[in-house]
Specification:
Layout: E1 11-16, H1 22-40, E2 48-53, E3 60-61, E4 64-65
Parallel strand pairs: 1-2
Antiparallel strand pairs: 3-4
Length: about 70
């Protein structure tokens, strides 16, 4: 690595309504990491994935609140 250069560490953010179990979240994180690493050739250890649970009251589709 060149001096002053930082290798990109990809961050994948998933936003969704609450409800997934911890098991499903863990499986999702593993699957997304694997797919991204395979598609880009990145080391899976450098891939960050977050799952943000946003209450239905904070979502809207077509101008209509979900909550």
């Amino acid at each position: 690595m060149e001096a002053g250069r930082i290798d990109a560490m990809p961050l994948i953010q998933i936003s969704q309504t609450p409800g997934l179990s911890d098991r499903v979240k863990n499986e999702t994180i593993a699957a997304v990491t694997e797919a991204y690493a395979r598609a880009t050739g990145k080391n899976p250890d450098s891939v960050w994935v977050t799952i943000n649970e946003i209450p239905r009251t904070q979502w809207g589709v077509g101008g209509v609140p979900l909550g």
